[in-house]
Specification:
The chain has 421 residues and is an all-alpha fold. The protein has a single domain, classed as Amino acid/polyamine transporter I. It is globular and about 60 Å long. GO terms for molecular function: metal ion transmembrane transporter activity. This is Manganese transporter. It is a multi-pass membrane protein. One of its GO terms (cellular component) is membrane.
């Protein structure tokens, strides 16, 4: 029999193993998103307004999609990160991004670190500021000694555990009898007093848009471990983004099914808020599951803190590196991580455990800066820095303009609300 007669096996059209191995940046983005915007904002939206904001959450995720997708699309097409793309557009573009990113980095790190410390108070009887210090130090140890490879593996396991636990809790909550306070009066989110909450919820839904730059840098780090094709990079991003949108609705459902109508509201205190959040799960899964749920929730928020420190530090380091025309330096990256964590801890010490006000401020800040980050990404994705085939087509351009219109409109409305309240 000749070689030409030898039967050959057709290659599968979709190799799940290779795609799962290539996944990582998209899941890291999902981990960063699920921390505060989902556990806090989505759950609180359901607890206070029921299902009324479900369509808003889905719409926000859709309208922000083109700006988040820019990270994976630009890097997979050019081999460069987004910040290099900003610099090609002009030095001032990168300067604006880096300046706004610096402010967001410190505030966001403080927010997620305090939320993680609040979860930890359910297990360790120490003040929240001491626990925040332990959380930040532990995160730095993981990042400095474990690098991207450890972060990649850790996130996949934690995301799977939290997703399964939350899906089980919501499934049980659908069958559990609702506890409605006889004096309960449903409130509409579409009133003037609720503008602040709506903007805060949309600010981190699914995450701050600068996360697209993290995704870009993480994709380059992933490519250092194993080759990642353009198709795999886009699949990884889309999978992670879809997961964040669906889980946002799942967390909204949990708040709606367990707390809506009960008359109970989330506390501004970090420790009390953490206890209330864990109780949402244990009410439907049984009191014996409290510690298991608490551990999973803590690990989820802790992974968010680690990814936030890593993502912001990488973008800040890269921005300053490109602006100053210096060589890449691992020591400088570590120094940025430590400096950012130190400043975040200072904010936590100043606020003395007031969790919800801090998170609301961070989310509002994210929404106000989102307009700038969204414009930067859109301008890059239609620029000549990309080949015509890699630029946004008509559908993505229309969706981008709808997204920009929504972002600018709500930002203007919020500014007016702040001036008149």
């Amino acid at each position: 029999m000749s070689n030409s007669d030898t039967p050959t096996l057709a290659k599968p059209l979709f190799n799940f193993g290779s795609f799962f191995g290539a996944m990582g940046p998209g899941l890291l983005m999902a981990a960063a998103a699920i921390g505060a915007s989902h556990l806090v904002a989505s759950t609180r939206a359901g607890a206070e307004f029921g299902w009324q904001l479900a369509w808003v959450i889905l719409a926000v995720n859709l309208l922000k999609y083109p700006f988040f997708a820019a990270g994976a699309r630009y890097t997979s097409a050019t081999g460069e990160n987004l910040l290099q793309g900003y610099l090609k557009q002009g030095r001032n573009y990168l300067l604006v991004f880096t300046a706004l990113n610096t402010i967001a980095a410190i505030a966001s790190t403080a927010g997620v670190a305090m939320l993680t410390a609040a979860m930890l108070t359910q297990f360790v009887p120490l003040p929240i500021d001491v626990l925040a210090l332990l959380v930040l130090v532990s995160s730095l140890v993981i990042l400095i000694f474990g690098h991207y490879a450890l972060l990649d593996k850790m996130t996949k396991v934690i995301m799977l555990a939290l997703t399964l636990t939350t899906l089980v809790a919501v499934a049980l909550a659908f069958n559990a009898p609702a506890i409605v306070n006889p004096d309960f009066v449903p409130q509409s989110p579409w009133q003037w007093a609720s503008i602040g909450f709506l903007v805060a919820m949309m600010g981190w839904m699914p995450a701050p848009i600068e996360v697209s730059a993290w995704n870009s840098l993480w994709l380059i780090e992933k490519q250092k471990l194993s080759p990642v094709t353009k198709q795999q990079a886009l699949f990884d991003f889309n999978f992670g983004y879809l997961m964040t949108a669906l889980l946002a609705i799942v967390f909204l459902a949990l708040g709606t099914l367990v707390m809506y109508g009960s008359g109970e509201q989330f506390s501004a205190s970090g420790a009390k808020f953490a206890g209330q959040l864990i109780s949402l799960y244990s009410q439907v899964m049984g009191s014996e599951s409290r510690y298991l749920i608490g551990a999973v929730a803590f690990l989820c928020i802790f992974s968010t803190t680690v990814t936030v420190i890593d993502g912001y530090s990488r973008t800040l380091n890269m921005g300053w590196q490109l602006l100053s025309k210096r060589q890449e330096s691992e020591r400088r990256l570590i120094a940025v991580m430590i400096a950012m964590s130190t400043l975040a801890l200072t904010i936590i010490l100043f606020l003395k455990g007031a969790l919800l006000p801090l998170l609301e401020f961070v989310m509002i800040l994210a929404f106000m800066t989102t307009v700038v980050f969204a414009w930067l990404n859109y301008k890059l994705m239609i620029s000549t820095a990309l080949l015509p085939a890699d630029r946004y087509g008509s559908a993505m351009r229309v969706l981008s303009w709808l997204g920009l219109t929504y972002l600018v409109s709500f930002a203007a409305l919020f500014i007016y609300w702040m001036l008149t309240k």
